[in-house]
Amino acid sequence: VDTTAQTTTVTLRLLDADGIPFSALPTGFSASDMRFSIAQLKPASSANLSSTWQSYVNRDRTSSTYSSVKQATYERASSGSLTYAENGYWKYVFDVNIQNVTSPIAVAYDGSLRHRVALQFSGNDDQPVFDFIPNGTAITSTTDSREIVRTEDCNSCHNKLAVHGSRYEIQYCVVCHNS
Questions:
Q1: What is residue 166's DSSP assignment?
Q2: How far is it, in rounded angstroms, from Cα 17 to Cα 138?
Q3: pLDDT at 121
Q4: Global confidence as pTM
Q5: For residue 87, what pLDDT is reported?
């Protein structure tokens, strides 16, 4: 993940089940089938007794239940810039500038905090996540990751978390399900 030049670029490698790199998206699959989310882990404060994830990608949502709420969400790869590099490597440039988020809520960027990028593929059970610190500091422990429960623990009773179709990894869920 590169957060320089007012953009955030994620480089990822797409492989098929046999480990063969994809040089094109599979038949019937488009960039709109890929969803990228990004959040930062805010440390505990006097208002919050524990650390909290805060999404950079948010929207105003109106429904019959709510007149208007702010809601964390994702970007479809078709809204940013998804390009093929080589040997199965792809680059996605977020449409949102995480260093200057002011609407629909202001999110203060801090490059010294843990960040998480999450990716969902429609129709796929894998939701890869990647934690990083933008200023280049190495992540050396899980104590600042806000890992409270493991997906396996939830699935021991619920069989398989699948609230939004195929999404069921707790590390992915927290990127959107936050304050």
A1: T
A2: 31
A3: 82
A4: 0.81
A5: 92
CB contact at 8 A, 78 and 61: no
The two tokens of residue 117 are 């990028």
The count of other CB atoms within 10 Å of the CB of residue 55 is 27
Q: Calculate ∠ Cα 76-82-83, nearest 5°.
A: 165
* Over residues 104-125, mean pLDDT: 88
- The DSSP call for residue 101 is B
pLDDT of residue 84: 93
**Model pLDDT, residue 153:** 67
Token pair for 39: 């959040």
Rounding to the nearest 10 degrees, give the CA dihedral for residues 164, 168, 169, 172. 0
Going by C-alpha positions, the residue among 134, 132, 94 that lies closest to residue 111 is 134
Asked if 95 contacts 79 with a C-beta cutoff of 8 angstroms, the reply is yes
Pair of tokens at residue 14: 């797409």
User: SS3 breakdown of the chain: % helix, strand, coil, rounded to 5?
Assistant: 10, 30, 60
